Every structure is written in structure tokens, then in C-alpha cells.
Amino acid sequence: MNSKKFLIGGIVGGILFFLLGWLIYGMLLMNFMTQHATAAAAGVMRPEAEWPWWAMIVGNMGLGFLVSYVLAKANVSGAAAGASTGAVVMFLVSLSYDFIIYAQMNLYDLTGAAVDIISSAVIGAVVGAVVGWLNGRNSS
Questions:
Q1: Residue 97 burial by CB count (10 A; 0-12/13-18/19+): exposed, middle or buried?
Q2: What is the model's pTM?
Q3: Cα(15)–Cα(80) distance, rounded to whole angstroms?
Q4: Assigned domain for 41 exists
């Protein structure tokens, strides 16, 4: 595995996860996701002003490095292959944690979980496309 590709892809991927999460969840789906959250969820959500931003950054960077690692190990070096791989990785990650949370906690309904899974796959496809493109561009 090329360490340079992994590091560049991870950093770019993490930044993209943060920006796309803000756009999709923070802007486009905010009202929808609130409508599909349970009353119990209101008690666990922090107001944005109280978010520990370091934790948000670490979480998004972790996802960026996850996608970068998978693409680097799979030797993906193109936008199309990166998009499909990124979509599958994030679909499976989100499918896993959304249904475990749904089974154990009273935070959202099945529609909210399904939309989160699809949204995660879309974000994963975009991040994967960019990281895959970077991998192909940085071939050396």
C-alpha cells in the first residue's frame, strides 16, 4: 500500500465527509431526520453550540481514512471504481450501525434509518470517487 496515497486520500476524504455531512444532514435532510426521530432522541441531541468539534473532526477523518485504506488496499485508481467501492463500504457500515442502534435504542424510526443508510452510501460514493481519482492521479 502506498502511504502517500493513503494519507492524502484520508485527509481529503475526511474533509469531504465533513462537508457532505453538513450539506446532506445539516441542510437538506435536517427537518426530515428530525421528523423521523423519536421523542427520546430529543433528550440525547446536543445543541450545535455545545458540540465538541474535535470529536466531529476525528469521526469524519476516521471515515475518510477508512475509505482511503480500503481503496488503497484494493488498488482502486479511478473515480468510477472508487465511487462504487466507497458506496458499498459506507452502505455496509451504515447498515450495521443503524440497525444495531435501531435494535437497542429508541432514537429513530425505520424510515429515518433507511434514509441514513442511503445518504451514507451516496456520501461514500462521492468520497470514494474523489479518493479513487486521486489514487489514479498520484500513481507512481
A1: middle
A2: 0.91
A3: 20
A4: no
